[in-house]
Each structure stands twice: as C-alpha cells, then as structure tokens.
Amino acid sequence: MEKKKTALITGGSRGIGRAICLRLAKEGMNIAFTYTSRPEEAAKTEEACRALGAQVLCIKADVSDPSACLAAAEQVKAAFGAIDVLVNNAGITRDDLLLRMTEDDFDAVLKTNAYGTFHMLKAVSKIMLRQRSGSIINMSSIVGVKGNAGQINYAASKAAVIGMTKSLAREVASRGIRVNALAPGMIETDMTSAMPDQAKEAMEKQIPMGYMGSADDIAAAAAFLASEDSRYITGQVLVIDGGLAI
Ligand code: NAP
Fold first, then answer.
1. Cα 41 from chain centroid?
2. Do the Cβ atoms of 49 and 42 come closer than 8 Å?
C-alpha cells in the first residue's frame, strides 16, 4: 500500500486554512495544522478531519515566532515521519490609508504574513531537502499582485510572499521540491466579513463572475498544487478570483 502523505497547514483553525485541511484529509493525507488564538475553532477542524479518516495533529504555534515554527515542523516530522506538503496560509489584515497607518499595523502584518512564511519555509525546507521531495504552497493574494488602497502593509506582505515563492522555487527545484503561490481574490471568510458592507458590495461589483469565492474554491487549487497532477509546475502564482484581476 502507498504511504500516506503528510500536510502541514498554518492557520488551519478557520476560513481558507480549514477548508484546505478538510480537502487534503479527503485526499487521504495526514493533517497537521497550526492556530494561535481560537482553540475552540481549531478543535472543530481537528474533529472534522478525523471524521474524514485522517490522523490529525493540532499545534498552537504563532508563525511570527521562528522557534515556534521550528518546533512545529519537528513535531510533525516526529509524529508522521515526513512533511510532504506545506501550506503557508496563516495571515492577517490591519487596514488603513497610508497617512493613518501606524508602524504597529505595518509590523504586525509583515510579521505574520511575510516573516511567518519565511520562518516556516526555513523550518520545513530543511526536512524536505533531506527527503528530496515536497510541495510548498504559499498564500499570497490578488492584492499582492495589483495593490489595494488602504492595504499598503498587506499588499507589501503578499508581494513578499510572491518574491519568496519564485526565489525558493529556483533554489530547490533540482532537489525535487516545488514551490507555488495561490492568489485569491475576494473569498467569504471571517477576514472579509470584517469589511464594511459598502466596501464589500463595491468590490463584488468589480468581479466579472459577479460573486465572491468560497474557501473550497481555494482548497481545490491547493489540492491540485499538492498533488502529482502539478508535478511539472513550480514558481507560479495561481490567481483564483472570478476574473477580478483581468
Ligand atoms: P481568517 O478566516 O481570518 O483565518 C486566519 C487563520 O490564520 C486563522 O486560522 C488564524 O488562527 C490564523 N492565524 C492568524 N495569525 C496567525 C499567526 N500569527 N500564527 C498562526 N496562525 C495565525 O483568514 P482567511 O480569509 O481564511 O485567510 C487565509 C489566508 O488567505 C490569509 O493568508 C489571507 O491573507 C489569504 N487571503 C484571503 C482572502 C480572502 O478574501 N479571505 C483573499 C486573499 C488572500 P486563529 O483562529 O487561532 O486566530
């Protein structure tokens, strides 16, 4: 029988991260995921993955802390023997126009979204390089490609994710590791439900397909990039946005 693959997903307690955990569990993988602040939501993800037949490891780890990332990666390797798929999904927003944006707002978003990705890449690449295999999926955003008024910090962090994706893809391609990014548009989760209704409606009008995407739409793309069906694809940014960026 083929050995079960193991996926590590950051920020798996809610939203897109939870949908990716469930989808990869359905594909037959062992699931390890992290969260920071909501143990009750993390427990729901854990239970739902188990109900799909997956072995699950739920880890409280703040991705902005490099030692927590290292410890999480080692814990997953010790529990399952390998890390075949890494999804750097954890992310936050702290929106404001430039003149009102504080250094704290800028730092917090860069620390989770950009530094968090960097720390996890370092911790998990070490393991994947030894394995000589792996698929890494980094969560960027259409905002990292196009920019967005009121999101200078978030746009900078998500553009950084694209830069890291392309650079690491070049570094590790010869060692059997692929690195790609997903760039979602407007997806229905807690992150977008925090937006004022007016701003959301204005954005929705700009989507050629006319509606917001679901977390499952992103999970389907993650499952493709995690699978052997994408074995010749690396260094790419896959936009999933109902046509928003056309
Ligand atoms: P969400 O519903 O707000 O969920 C965020 C997840 O990240 C939660 O599981 C949260 O854990 C975790 N998290 C936050 N900070 C963390 C940290 N420092 N360390 C570890 N985990 C942390 O967000 P979402 O909408 O699903 O977004 C997921 C990713 O997709 C993000 O990178 C986001 O930027 C990106 N994205 C989203 C959209 C969209 O329209 N929703 C569009 C483009 C890109 P807790 O539950 O413990 O707080």
1. 17
2. no
154 is catalytic: yes
Taking the C-alpha atoms of residue 122 and residue 69, their distance in angstroms, rounded to an integer, is: 9
pLDDT tens digits, one per residue of 37-96:
999 999 999 999 999 999 999 999 999 999 999 999 999 999 999 999 999 999 999 999
Q: Strands 134-139, 177-184: parallel, antiparallel or unpaired by DSSP?
A: parallel
Pocket of ligand 1 contains residue 244 by CB under 6 Å: no
Q: Does residue 88 line the site of ligand 1, with CB under 6 A?
A: no
Reading phi first (left if > 0) and then psi (alpha if -120 to 50, else beta), residue 226 is in alpha
Nearest to 143 by CA among 9, 245, 10: 245
What is the spatial distance between Cα 203 and Cα 192, in angstroms, rounded to a whole number? Answer: 11
User: What's the whole-number average pLDDT of the chain?
Assistant: 97
- Residue for token digits 């760039």? 183
Q: Which of 35, 115, 154, 211 is catalytic?
A: 154
| The model's pTM | 0.98
Amino acid identity, residue 166? Answer: K
Contact 165, 141 (CB under 8 A): no
- In this prediction, residue 191 carries a pLDDT of 92
Task: Classify residue 243 as left (phi > 0), alpha (psi -120 to 50) or beta.
Answer: left
* Model pLDDT for residues 138-181, shown as the tens digit of each residue: 999 999 999 999 999 999 999 999 999 999 999 999 999 999 99
